[in-house]
């Protein structure tokens, strides 16, 4: 078995949740927050058979969209210099950051 952990944007969570349910993929959804943007994102945890991993990845891929976002850096003037402080930075967020890890044991009591 494998644990598929997928961090996706808040905006895509509802669609992915429905798609996983429709395809009978068991999932736990956690509210999370990115360390860089400090914006809410959603983390899905799915323990699935090895043979289902590629299918689950394809569902995530079909749902999660990459988006461009402008941010104002909050780094102090001394570190960045005055010009950098004024300019917002464009970053591309998502679609999904996915980790697949082996599960040594799986129990449900
Ligand atoms: P955040 O940490 O809020 O990052 C949002 C986006 O900001 C990232 O999108 C990336 O495009 C950019 N970014 C992050 N750190 C940066 C930096 N030091 N300099 C410049 N730009 C930076 P994604 O890469 O698509 O990541 C989306 C979210 O996935 C992240 O939100 C974080 O919650 C999670 N994530 C990404 N990589 C991770 C990792 N290695 N381990 C755990 N979580 C991760």
What does this structure look like?
Pfam families: CdAMP_rec. InterPro entries: CdAMP_rec, N-reg_PII-like_a/b, N-reg_PII/ATP_PRibTrfase_C. The structure is a single chain. This protein is of the alpha+beta class and 109 residues long. It has a single domain, classed as Alpha-Beta Plaits (2-Layer Sandwich), CATH 3.30.70. 30% of the residues lie in helices and 37% in strands. It has 4 helices and 6 strands, in the order βαββαβααββ. The chain has helices spanning 10-22, 53-63, 77-80, 82-86, and strands spanning 2-9, 28-33, 40-48, 67-71, 89-93, 96-102. The strands form 2 sheets. Strands 2-3-1-6 form a 4-stranded antiparallel beta sheet. The chain has a two-stranded antiparallel sheet with strand order 4-5. The longest helix is centred in the N-terminal third of the chain and has 13 residues, at 10-22. The two termini are 18 Å apart. The chain binds ligand 2BA. Residues 7, 34-37, 39, 41, 91-94, 97 line the site of ligand 2BA.
């Amino acid at each position: 078995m494998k644990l598929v952990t997928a961090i996706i944007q808040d905006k895509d969570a509802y669609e992915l949740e429905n798609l996983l349910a429709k395809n009978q993929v068991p999932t736990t959804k956690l509210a999370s927050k990115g360390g860089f943007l400090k914006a809410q994102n959603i983390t899905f945890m799915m323990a699935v058979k090895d043979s289902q991993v590629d299918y689950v990845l394809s569902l995530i891929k079909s749902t999660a969209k990459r988006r461009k976002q402008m941010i104002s850096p909050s780094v102090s003037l001394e570190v960045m210099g005055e010009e950098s402080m004024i300019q917002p930075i464009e970053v591309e967020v998502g679609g999904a950051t996915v980790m697949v890890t082996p599960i040594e044991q799986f129990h449900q009591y």
